[in-house]
Specification:
With about 375 residues, this protein is an alpha/beta fold. It has two domains: about 150 residues, Nonspecific Lipid-transfer Protein, Chain A; about 200 residues, Vaccinia Virus protein VP39 (Rossmann fold), CATH 3.40.50. Helices cover about 35% and strands about 20% of the residues. The chain is built from twelve helices and twelve strands. The protein has a seven-stranded mixed β-sheet with strand order 8-7-6-9-10-12-11, with helices on both faces. The chain has a five-stranded mixed β-sheet with strand order 3-2-1-4-5. Bound molecules: S-adenosylmethionine (SAM). S-adenosylmethionine binds next to strand 6, helix 9 and strand 7.
């Protein structure tokens, strides 16, 4: 069952894609303060104020007749967003006043839906010579905070990789391929599962790529799965589950928690038998139009991972298994073919260095005319 907080975020994400009236109604029923907390936590996460000087910024978020004030506070110990107290509000470097509907739409809305029409930004004492340095120091962190509302689709996947510490860029060169497939759907309210959280035996390490996906897909619900208990790495919009990808029972439990999936990424054990079990169990949970990705396919040629160095087409290896499905794309053209369950359910397969993308969908375009000679 979804927690209340997760349900509220999902509701806001969907309402942010609808008209102002629907969004205002959702805000009213969740409560302006709860919405302000949700949205400012997201803004702070995306703004990534590392490297910025200490700063305090007040966000005065307007709804019909009321203002909810939140303070973003960056100090030596981290960044927080909390409801304002009178004392904290009097010490801020800048004040942003804006309609809450507009802020929620900017943060959780589809590409191009945001606006800053109702925004007023004021710097503290910018005219006083003694305080001139202070607002100037605040310019960069406030820019980052506002960009995370106004331009959530501006940062590339490779940049989020570097900022989140994921090895998908650098050690690997995966973002170019991911962006080719994911950029057109980046602003949809997707459900995404990645097997392999990272950090191996340490329960508090890992999560780099999950944080990257959370920032790259601003409207998505992100799930991570690892054999090690890393559930403590969960944050709003990002849920970490524990389970073994070689166990169909574990994976069925995972799907009960996630519901139908739009994207599945296998970056787990990279053992061929595990890759194959995960595919068989999870592919049925992928929606039509969804994408199944397998990373690090070099292990298919390495015996240490259950691969085979000399038998490229052996179906017990992950590459051999995937290649066997390729002919299924043309299943309607092949006389006497033993049908495979994926034949009519895979619309496209794309292979790149060490990774594959499979597109799920009805593959029944119809074969060539029967009168055309086949022999
Ligand atoms: C390569 S790391 C994942 C890196 C992460 N996806 C990233 O890009 O930042 C592989 C992770 O898979 C996990 N793992 C290994 N065997 C597994 C299994 N059988 N089921 C689920 N997770 C597994 C490991 O604990 C490790 O944290």
């Amino acid at each position: 069952m979804r927690s209340r907080a997760v349900g509220d975020i999902e509701r806001l994400v969907h309402a942010a894609g609808a008209g102002d009236g629907v969004l205002a109604e959702s805000i009213e029923s969740i409560g302006a303060e709860a919405v302000a907390r949700i949205v400012m936590a997201e803004v702070v996460d995306r703004a990534d104020l590392r490297g910025c000087p200490p700063v305090a910024v007040s966000f005065r978020l307007r709804t019909e007749g009321t203002i909810t004030e939140m303070i973003v506070d960056k100090s030596g110990s981290g960044v927080t967003a909390h409801p304002a107290t009178a004392a904290a509000a009097s010490r801020t470097d800048a004040t942003v006043e804006q309609s809450l509907v507009e802020v929620v739409r900017g943060v959780f809305g589809p590409r191009g839906a945001g606006s800053s029409a109702t925004r007023v930004l004021r710097w503290r004492d910018i005219d006083g010579p003694e305080s001139f340095g202070r607002p100037a120091l605040a310019f960069e962190p406030v820019r980052r905070l506002l960009d995370s509302i106004d331009r959530p689709y501006h940062t590339s996947l490779a940049e989020w990789c570097v900022r989140s510490g994921s090895d998908k860029w650098g050690v690997h060169q995966y973002p170019q391929h991911y962006e080719r497939h994911f950029d057109p759907i980046r602003d949809r309210p997707l459900t995404i599962l990645e097997i392999g959280v990272g950090g191996y035996d340490d329960p508090h390490r890992g999560g780099e790529s999950l944080r990257m996906w959370k920032r790259y897909f601003p409207r998505a619900a992100i799930f991570g799965l690892d054999i090690v208990d890393k559930t403590a790495l969960s944050t709003p919009r990002l849920t970490v589950l524990q389970g073994d990808q070689s166990s169909a029972t574990d994976l069925e439990r995972v799907v009960r928690a996630t519901g139908p999936l739009d994207i599945i990424i296998d970056d787990g054990s990279h053992i061929s038998a595990h890759v194959i079990t995960a595919f068989h169990t999870l592919f049925p949970a992928l929606r039509d139009g969804g994408v199944y990705v397998v990373e690090d396919l070099q292990t298919s040629y390495w015996p240490h991972f259950g691969g085979k160095s000399g038998a490229y087409n052996d179906i017990s290896t992950s590459m051999g298994f995937l290649k066997a499905m390729l002919d299924g794309l043309n299943h309607e053209e092949i006389d006497g073919r033993e049908p495979a369950p994926t034949d009519a359910a895979i619309k496209g397969m794309h292979f790149y260095h060490n990774m594959a993308f499979l597109e799920k969908g009805e593959n029944r375009d119809g074969g060539a005319p029967s009168w055309l000679s086949r022999i």
